[in-house]
Amino acid sequence: MSVDDRLRAGLAANAATVRPAEELRLDAVRRRHRRRHALVAGALVVVLLVGGGAALGWLLSGQGSTGGRGVDPADAPTTLSSPSHPVIPASNWRKVVTRDELVAAGEDPASLREHLGSAEQMPVLLALSQDVFSQSARYAGGWSGGDAGRVSYDDEGRLVLTSSSTGCFRCVFTLDWRLEAGELHLSDATGALDPVDRVMYLGTWRSADG
Question: What's this model's pTM, rounded to 2 decimal places?
């Protein structure tokens, strides 16, 4: 099943899911840092649904190391042509965020102890389809969705992520991107991301699809 199909297949099932209070509190802590940007667009309810294959195996195994093999250069995803610019193909990407990075970005150490336990690293997964995205992270209680929303591209071909989650509805991230040998490199295209969002979204993501 494709990334796009997996994301869409989970919409109805997850729309009524009640998330634990501690996860909602952690989301609130992270999202209080986000800059609010108005965007005239329809609301789209999207939730995390990471599917099978290599991405699901990575989740279930509890792996969180930045090591390991990404996609071989010959198998690396290529951009898909659109009338005006290339786009990122449907794919899953993984990275690891450390406790020190989150503290340096302004997160409360006490809150991190509560939600991350003794773990010094927090694995993060980013799933992208042609028009929706979701991001999840592994907390002390297991994997949980953290953000989701719409995917688009601006006139310069930059990746634009628009959050549909209630904690940061219509927050916008405009990112420069590059695909290279099984890695997705994301950087802040506008300088508007706050420190926590920089930690959670920017940098090098490794393929979780193979």
Answer: 0.66
